[in-house]
Amino acid sequence: MFNPYIDYFLLCLTTLFTLINPLGITPIFLVLTERFTRSERIRIARRGVTTAGVTLLVFALLGSLIFKVYGITVEAFQIMGGIIFFRSGLRMLEAKVGRTRTTPAEQEESLDQDDIAVSPIGIPIITGPGAITAAMLLSSKAQSPVHYGELVLAILVVLYAVYLIFRGSDQLSKRLGATGMRVFQRIMGLILMVIAVQFVIRGVETVLSRILHT
After folding, report:
1. Percent composition of the chain: helix, strand, coil (DSSP 3-state, to 5)
2. How far is Cα 192 from Cα 12, in angstroms, rounded to an integer?
3. pTM for the whole structure
């Protein structure tokens, strides 16, 4: 439909943005940083995004190597990844925060720490299992250095968007309100579920094609 490079970049961008769900996690960020000043909140957002970026880049660039070391097929990871994405999307659609993001105990502990940027904000609030799985899966679909560059660019663009949203979280929360945040989260969840189904379909089609041709 488009240029293959554009298709791949858009796939990376939409998948990562939907999985990280910046607006969906903004209320969590606001709760965890409510006792800090605006400048401190911005600094926490910056460090959290940096932590998430390093994590995603490591998995994105080493994704293919991990496949080879453990003998994992792309199709198996596509199907498994699709299931994980679907579950995450279902939680978003129901306006629920996944247990992999944070727990009440983690929230209480984080409020007693001076620096909560690395955990739980960087990991696992911004970069949860779903985003890590996506980075590895998208890495496996890269067919050239250009694709890897596009994946890295998509990660940077999405995380910069997360930083901007966190930076303006106070105004955003007031404008959207609780209802608006929930509506957006449900929309993102629906999109994620569609992407998940497509991943599973592609994985199953490839497996069936190989079986029929053997």
Report:
1. 85, 0, 15
2. 12
3. 0.72
Instruction: Identify whether the C-beta of residue 60 lies closer than 8 Å to the C-beta of residue 138.
Output: yes
For residue 57, give both structure tokens: 């880049």
Structure-block tokens of residue 86 = 């679907």
> What residues in the chain have per-residue pLDDT under 70?
1-2, 95-114, 173, 181, 214
> Distance between CA atoms of 102 and 124, rounded to whole angstroms?
7
CA distance 75 to 148: 19
The per-residue DSSP string of 139-160 comes to HHT--SHHHHHHHHHHHHHHHH
In the structure encoding, which two tokens stand for residue 25, read together?
A: 């996690």
Rounded to whole angstroms, the Cα distance separating 85 from 15 reads: 9
Rounded Cα distance between 189 and 195, Å, is: 10
